[in-house]
Amino acid sequence: MERSEAKIRIEKLSNDLMEHNYRYYILNEPSVSDYTYDEMMRELRELETEFPEYLKPDSPSQRVGGGVQSSFEKVEHKVQMASLQDVFSYDEVAAFVQRCKENMANPKFVVEPKIDGLSVSLEYENGILTRGSTRGDGFIGEDVTMNLKTIHTVPLSITKAPPFLEVRGEVYMSRSSFEKLCAQQEENGETPFKNPRNAASGSLRQKDASVTAKRKLDILIFNVQQIEGRELLTHKESIDYLKSLGFHTVFQSELLENTKDIIREIERIGIERSEYPYDTDGAVVKVDSFSQREEMGSTAKTPKWAVAYKFPPEEKETVLREIIPSVGRTGVITPVAVFDTIRLAGTDVERATLHNQDFISEKGICIGDTIVVRKAGEIIPEVVRSVRRSEGAVPYTLPEVCPVCGTKAERDPEEAALRCVNPQCPAQVMKRMIHFASKDAMNIDGLGPQNLAALHNAGLIKSVADLYTLKKEDILSLDRFAEKSAENLLASIEKSKSNSLDRLIFGLGVKNIGAKAAKLLCQAFPSVERIMSAKPEEIAEIEGFGSIMAESVVNAFAEPHMRELITRLVELGLNSEYETAEIKDDRFTGKTFVLTGTLPTMKRNEAKALIEQYGGKVSGSVSKKTSYVVAGEEAGSKLDKANSLGVPVITEEELVAMTKEQI
Question: What values do phi and psi take at 602, rounded to 5?
């Protein structure tokens, strides 16, 4: 093909594919078959490979990138990507409306669903997408342009565009895509994401854009951040304008003037939200006029012209069919309710905790009852109450023996729990192995519950120590593994040997000892031998410990099976010494930090390690003694408490700057 012909054909294919994308992803009106679309895309890629001078950055072929980024560059937001003030009652909504009316003449409002996703910015220069970034802390975000280009509802170019346009939107994962992803993760022996929001956040920050592309993310645009060459007077006008440019925009109500109509619209969204393809945790009420927004102004964190009404936890009725006693890794026997499948917070639910016997007795719960179930924190299903009883029903009572090994169960005097006291109970052994391999413990990739169960059921492992004696041929004997996956698992197991000692201590599942306590224990007694020989009064002196935690440690490491397991793990080459972090200087000595929200570039454990390198401490709660709160995106109640107590609030960037100051 001649160059002139190739140029014309590339332009024709590009325009046609962009039109098909718009019809399929925005209008939901596909105009060609998937086969025809794929053939057109294949031809375009071949022509662009043969004639690379005609490859444009907004070509549809650039939608799914294969590039891998080593890091995400920081982006300074010229216009703050502010968060909204949350309200939890209609009285608070009414108070907001009243404040607006007191400060401006005849304000009008719009109501939109509050999408439970990840907020991003898209920047266009002369109609071409030049940069996409995360919200971060509102001032500094991360450049995730390559990943955002994989989302089909993000236009790579727009026609009749202004010289510059920056819009804000919410990236989300649809419920259907979330369910498929979780099924795939379980199939691969991975731990599934807890909810669609976590899945969207994790997918957008993948280093490899091709991984992001496979996650099928979507976006809804809800705001104009900056625009040059055109004047927009109202929010409704701006959304209509963005829609005309081809953006996938958020649904918005008609203009509303009184509290009654606003609340009615919020209620309508609450009723219909289960039918939306995305999770919705509330409704946003905004003043429509941009000039009136300027009159109202903003606080340091939130605009005064908008609020986000948060829906209460979704509750649904279902019929309780069965109660199954489940044995945990510490032997606690927890009753689990099994009921007719219901949909809660975007996922199908058919099981929920009943906590303990006291809870069942207090609520008078019987098998066959119609019960109310909700998701605590939109994540963990729990039974709230029984609302209707079946005829002749008798309140459920937990068995007196372990349902797995038959050992007589004992009531724990310290808590309302029934416990199996047999440490070799198969259920406890399996749960301990799952905990041992988990992300916060030994972090063994590819060793999720299903793969562990397969290894255990095949008789290849009876304890976590057996993991370190596995051979490639052992793993390949199972249907779940191929050559490469077996090699990857062995490599991950081998890598875990060099983990820090506190990960091992936490992974052993000592009662009352979480990840933080395990680290404190190792800092005080920096070897397995010293921990095992420590006296309860010595352990109790550790800051944050007490007599109960100290006794838990001593009792756990006094058990013959635990001492035998540790001896074997050390013999197999696991790290038994704790290396304390090098203290660069003591500038943070005596200072306590609290981390809240999602930081722009650091994970929580990275920020914590940085603070500790300079002698500081990290706490999980805010008090008057807190020195600084480091706040990131979606900072919640900890930030509110810091503001109420007058505790200084800093960003990740300010924290890093503090470590670089000359002292």
Answer: -105, 150
- The β-bridge partners of 142 are 74
What is the residue-averaged pLDDT of the chain? Answer: 89
DSSP-derived 3-state class of residue 70: coil
Residue 657: closest CA among 619, 620, 625, 628: 628
Task: Please answer whether residues 443 and 420 qualify as being in contact, where contact means their C-beta atoms are separated by less than 8 angstroms.
Answer: no
Domain 592-660: give its CATH architecture.
3-Layer(aba) Sandwich (3.40)
- Cα separations (Å) of 197 from 16, 444, 639? 33, 24, 21
Q: Pick the catalytic residue: 12, 114, 304, 641?
A: 114
Q: Are 197 and 119 spatial neighbours (Cβ–Cβ below 8 Å)? A: no
Record the tokens describing residue 64, joined without a space: 């799914």
Q: Find the DSSP H helices in 596-636.
A: 604-613
> Does the reported pTM lie above 0.70?
no
Band of pLDDT at residue 327, cut at 50, 70 and 90: very high
Which helix (H) or strand (E) covers residue 199, if one does? helix 196-204
Q: Quote the CA–CA distance of 501 and 523 in Å, as a whole number.
A: 10
CA 194, CA 199: separation in Å to the nearest integer? 8
CA distance 537 to 34: 70
CATH class of 426-571: mainly alpha
In this structure, the dihedral spanned by the alpha carbons of residues 377, 181, 70 and 64, taken in order and rounded to 10 degrees, is -130
Is the sign of the CA dihedral 513, 516, 517, 520 positive or negative? Answer: positive
Indicate whether 648 pLDDT > 90: yes
| Domain spanning 3-62, CATH architecture | Orthogonal Bundle (1.10)
Cα–Cα distance between 565 and 271 in angstroms, integer? 54
Domain ranges of the chain: 3-62, 85-310, 316-400, 426-571, 592-660
CATH architecture of residue range(s) 85-310: 2-Layer Sandwich (3.30)
CB 305 within 8 A of CB 291: no
Query: Which of these, 423, 497, 517, lies nearest to 462 by C-alpha position?
Result: 423
What distance in Å separates the CA atoms of residue 71 and residue 4, rounded to the nearest whole number? 40
Q: What b-and-e string marks burial along 561-578, b requiring 16 or more CB atoms within 10 Å of the CB?
A: ebeebbebbeeeebbbeb
Distance CA 636, CA 662 (A): 33
Given this structure, which CATH class describes domain 316-400? Answer: mainly beta
> What pLDDT shows up at residue 663?
65
Q: What is the pLDDT of residues 125-167, one digit of tens each?
A: 999 999 999 998 888 889 999 999 999 999 999 988 999 999 9
Encoded amino acid at 328, one letter:
G
CA-to-CA distance for 267 and 309, rounded, in angstroms? 11
Between the alpha carbon of residue 567 and those of residues 328, 528, 573, the distances in Å are: 24, 10, 10
Residues 269, 30: Cα–Cα separation, whole Å: 28
Query: What's the CA gap between 614 and 163, in Å, rounded?
Result: 47
Q: Is 473 exposed, middle or buried (0-12, 13-18, 19+ CB in 10 A)?
A: exposed
Specify whether the CB–CB gap between 135 and 81 falls below 8 A: yes
624 flagged as catalytic: no
Distance from C-alpha of 83 to C-alpha of 99, rounded to nearest angstrom: 19
Alpha helices in 342-423 (DSSP H): 357-363
What residues contact 104, with CB distance under 8 A and at least 6 apart?
287, 289, 292, 295, 296
Note whether 395 and 368 are within 8 A (CB). Answer: no
Residues across the chain: 663
* Average pLDDT score over residue span 34-49: 81
